[in-house]
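Researcher: Checking consistency across runs. Here is DUF2626 family protein again:
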Amino acid sequence: MARMFRVLGFFTLVIALMSFAGDMWEMSLLFFIQAAVFFLFGYLKFTERTYLFMFWGYMIIAFLGFTYWSVFEMGLPF
């Protein structure tokens, strides 16, 4: 499971680099921070259960943040 956090770190780093190249500074900063956290968690020796709890916590926070932003901050499309 620790290896999967390093894989998540790699993919978030790729997304951060692509958004940085596309002049999306806020998105690239967010994904650089996520990549650093994923790499850090990937090299710590947690148990399998701890990694699953951290992943589910991350998913809940990410989905709630995405839902809040898309409903309340982006506005209506018309």
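Researcher: Does this match what you'd expect to see?
Model: One thing to look at in this run: The helical segments are 2-21, 25-43, 48-73.
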